[in-house]
Amino acid sequence: MRVQGELADRRKPELSAVAGELTSEKRRPSSKKNKRKQKKVGSTPSAVQRLFETCKEVFADGGAGLVPSPEDVDRLRSVLDNIDASDVGLTQNMSYFRDGASTRTLPITYLHIYECDKLSIGIFCLPPSAVIPLHNHPGMTVFSKLLFGSMHIKSYDWVNVPQNSNGIVNSLHFQPPGLHLAKVKTDSVFTAPCKTSVLYPEDGGNMHCFTARTSCAVLDVLGPPYSNPEDGRDCTYYNEFHYKSFSGDGNLAPAEDGVYAWLEEKKKPDDFFVVGAKYRGPKIIEQS
């Protein structure tokens, strides 16, 4: 989905200037400074750095419609499972998470961490009751980790129907133009801490909607990221209709009522706002 406003500066940081005057040869450098320098060189990589390096490996040969191996999916999911809000410099009392009821708008903030043509990493910050409307992820594998808070997630996958099928697909005879049949994958409330969810180009709930029950933050990894409409990976939004609304007399087992729905493409909602803000957590270091 597109982010309004100015995203964090994506340029590689310039080399820092050397602070202070050069010491004379007779003046010995402080042992305290030496210890700090040694500690920095040998320090353990931050959780964000480990995430970045794992993502680069997992999506090294990626592209639209290409899914990482099950082993790589598990490896990246394991890294994300062990990340919490403190690892990315977030707390629930930050301004991103304040209730916007007084202004009648609930803008969502996106903190850009990293992006290249293979993947993107960022955080969606949602105040209470904020909604990311139903949208898709064309050709993408997406990892989502709820860092804190409680959120309702509803997701769908398209129903691919052979023309000579029976049962539920009989209802396609009554399908109005512009509507497509989808099956519910997830319809639940998630509360942190919880496991990382993964969606794929053709399954896993490729189309989803997020509704914040409380203030919450979601760390997202997309491989590959969205692109221009010409490249076929722009974000599409949907209206959803109950299955019975256009089912005619199609056959549907009572136990499956509510499992299916009709989706209709629509423009980005006018009341949906995502603004960019600078990510201020641990920095990523790209190896040359």
From TrEMBL:
The catalysed reaction is:
L-cysteine + O2 = 3-sulfino-L-alanine + H(+)
Provide the GO biological process annotations: detection of hypoxia
**Which cofactors are required for activity?**
Fe(2+)
Q: Which UniProt keywords apply?
A: Dioxygenase, Iron, Metal-binding, Oxidoreductase
Record SUPFAM superfamilies: RmlC-like cupins (SSF51182)
Region ranges (Disordered)? 1-45
Under InterPro entries, the record lists: PCO/ADO (IPR012864), RmlC-like_jellyroll (IPR014710), RmlC_Cupin_sf (IPR011051)
What are the EC numbers?
A: 1.13.11.20
Going by the entry's taxonomy, the superkingdom of the source organism is recorded as: Eukaryota
Residue ranges annotated as compositionally biased, kind Basic residues, are 29-40
Recall the GO molecular function terms of this protein's record. Answer: cysteine dioxygenase activity; metal ion binding
Database matches in Pfam families:
PCO_ADO
Residue ranges that the Swiss-Prot or TrEMBL entry lists as coiled coil: none
Indicate the family of this protein: Belongs to the cysteine dioxygenase family.
Its recorded name reads cysteine dioxygenase
Recorded source organism is Musa troglodytarum
